[in-house]
Design brief:
Largest sheet: 8 strands, antiparallel
Helix content: under 10%
Radius of gyration: 21 Å
Oligomer: single chain
Length: about 475
């Protein structure tokens, strides 16, 4: 691969619906002196009639520990089911030992184990399958620790009452600094939409505080807190108390006829008993039609920043596809946010700016920010702000059945250090209706060059053509 400053590169697998399924890892090796790129793998599922759904996996590396929100719920004639999984890749020439344990919603460890992931191997499995062998019905957390750096992504498979299923990625929460607050950049509620906010206390002390939902807010004024119905209770502030190693769930009702959207603030109480700060947080956004979940995705309360980059798309044909951008202002003063749009060749195609009110929020499709954007656009968005913000991107589309689908795609916070090595897409799928688009890009003003290598699950190097990869 090779890309210029402010540019990126996209490659695509091309297989038929009847091709056998191949699940692999893809390793990314920058040349000496080249900065490690950021990247996303967009995995699309199709049938003969056309595209059905999509999910995304971030390029990752250097992970030693991680925690997943684990939810295994069986589908019934009335409710959809969920199965949580994990994909791990060991990009090194040495075997790694991975210890893991399951903790239920009350913080009680119910199972633990150790698994050896051999050199250059990849594994993807549901948490109730080997080698994890967790309970079939479970809601809590799954935590792992590796003896050497690996790549990892969680998976959340939604099983509809009809028996159809959709794969989505699930954030792996890694080591993060204690913070007095967390900010989720997007929630949606009403007219079929609902949001489940999961608070995960990964510390050994009690965490207490409050949760508030805020809307876009009027220009120049502090954004008001929205009254919401959460866990059957209507209020504007929801208090939490999460024991060590346990979770708390706040599920919005989704019953209103109008749609509410905005951001979610998780604030820790000051003083004794809350020294570990606010819990980590994940939001699961769901959309239902006719009583059945059509699509869902998840977002993490990642650290805020002032410089972000992300891959974005906008097309009208053959199907409508658009990236949706959500920005939440974390400060108590107004904040100007600037957007620059670049093609994958690095060319600047447009720029615009918005001023967010104190604690304000904005969600817009790419075409709303850049109305003159042509059809079939694929490129990069560069977001800068005067003060810290939280930023998220959703990949939205209508599938072959005319259903609205969405999945979150990763963003690069340029304040984060680049991984030192071992970069891998731990889950790539091609064949049996699946195809994967790989996108690599650099930080602001930086070019990139390196090697892309496909590795089978059992650690054997493959040609790129084995996945039907074309430029």
């Amino acid at each position: 691969y090779s890309f210029l400053a402010n540019a990126g590169v996209s490659i695509q697998t091309a297989t038929s619906v009847s091709s056998p399924l191949k699940v692999s890892q893809v390793q990314i090796s920058p040349v000496q002196g080249s900065i490690a790129p950021a990247g996303v793998a967009i995995i699309r599922s199709s049938e003969v009639s056309g595209m059905k759904s999509a999910t995304s996996v971030a390029l990752s590396g250097g992970i030693r520990t991680g925690t997943l929100y684990a939810d295994n719920t069986e589908a019934t004639v009335r409710t959809d089911g969920v199965r949580t999984g994990l994909a791990l890749a060991n990009p090194s020439a040495q075997d790694v030992e991975i210890s893991f344990f399951f903790t239920d919603g009350n913080g009680i460890e119910i199972k633990s184990g150790v698994y050896t992931l051999l050199a250059n191997r990849q594994i993807s499995a549901f948490l109730d399958e080997s080698p994890f062998n967790g309970p079939a019905a479970f809601r809590g957390t799954f935590t792992f620790a590796s003896s050497a750096p690996i790549s990892a992504t969680g998976t959340r498979t939604m099983i509809q009452k009809s028996g159809e299923f959709q794969l989505q990625s699930l954030p792996v929460t890694t080591d993060s600094a204690a913070s007095s607050s967390r900010l989720l950049p997007l929630f949606v509620d009403g007219n079929g939409w609902s949001t489940e906010v999961v608070l995960m206390n990964r510390s050994t002390t009690l965490q207490t505080g409050s949760v508030q939902f805020s809307g876009p807010g009027p220009s120049g004024d502090r954004t008001p807190v929205i009254e919401m119905t959460v866990n059957g209770v209507s209020a504007s502030t929801f208090n939490y108390s999460v024991p060590p190693r346990s979770i708390a769930r706040l599920v919005t009702s989704g019953t209103g006829s109008s749609v509410k959207s905005g951001s979610v603030r998780i604030m820790a109480n000051a003083g004794e008993g809350s020294s570990s700060g606010a819990p980590d947080a994940v939001a699961i956004l769901s959309f239902k039609a006719g009583g059945e979940t059509v699509s869902e995705t998840s977002l993490s309360a990642l650290p805020t920043g002032t410089k972000f980059r992300a891959y974005v798309e906008s097309s009208n044909s053959p199907v409508w596809v658009s990236s949706g951008l959500s920005v939440a202002n974390s400060s108590n003063v107004s904040n100007m946010v600037n957007f620059e749009l670049h093609g994958l060749d690095g060319s600047l195609l447009g720029s615009t700016s918005l001023t967010l009110p104190p604690n304000g929020h904005v969600s817009q499709y790419l075409k709303e920010l850049f109305p003159s954007l042509g059809d079939g656009f694929k490129g990069l968005i560069h977001v800068t702000s005067a003060g810290p913000v939280a930023f998220a991107v959703l990949h939205c589309m209508y599938n072959a059945d005319g259903q609205f689908m969405f999945t979150s795609t990763p963003v690069l916070n340029e304040a984060n250090a680049s991984p030192s090595g071992g970069l891998t897409f731990p889950l790539v799928a091609a064949g049996a209706g699946y195809d994967t688009q790989l996108v690599l890009y650099g930080r602001s003003g930086q070019s990139g060059e390196g090697e892309i290598q496909v590795i089978s699950r059992d650690g054997v190097p493959q040609t790129t053509s084995s996945l039907g990869i074309v430029p």
